[in-house]
Amino acid sequence: MILKCEKVDFSDIYEIINDAAKAYKGIIPPDRWHEPYMSEKELYEQIEDGVQFWGYREGGRMQGVMGIQYKADVTLIRHAYVRSENRNRGIGGKLLSHLLAVSAGPVLIGTWADAAWAIGFYQKNGFRLLPKTETRILLPKYWSIPERQAEVSVVLASPDWNTSDPS
Predict the structure, then answer these.
(1) Domain count, the chain
(2) Is residue 164 part of a domain?
């Protein structure tokens, strides 16, 4: 069952993000990895900045989370994580489908360039990888991330995204 997360779900969101993000260790540059991957303070700041989390519950326990954030003329999918023991069971796809149904306008997703499994997941779900030139424009426009993170990130777009770079 997919439900909008409430304040009471904060610790579940935090736990799921930091459990699932262990998949990035050794994949993303060492200078971008830290433990916990996302601090409670950072999670709180993300929520205060407008990220609305949705959770997938099964067996009375939250198994996965995904955030949505409305920014100007786009919708961002943010912080998509499934508990490590529940990966590859369709939970991410169910959350993504739900968020796409409630999104407004084109959808953009940012992720690590070396996270091939994440990029493949979004491509399998109809998103296209944008050229690096466009990514470098979009990241500072819609995300607040350090320059170093932008250097090693990619952006994927929903089919209704009108690219500004014809390449």
Answers:
(1) 1
(2) no
Residue environment code for 90-116, b if the CB has 16+ CB neighbours within 10 A, otherwise e: ebbebbbebbbeebeeebbbbbbbebe
Would you state the pLDDT for residue 162? 86
Which residues neighbour 100 within 8 Å (Cβ) at sequence distance 6 or greater? 107, 158
pLDDT digits (tens, 9 = 90+) for 155-166: 999 999 987 544
pTM (2 d.p.): 0.94
Task: Assess if residue 166 is contained within a domain.
Answer: no
Task: Say if strands 107-112 and 74-82 run parallel, antiparallel, or are unpaired.
Answer: parallel
Q: How many CB atoms lie within 10 A of CB 73?
A: 9
User: To the nearest 10°, the Cα dihedral for 15, 87, 108, 22?
Assistant: 50
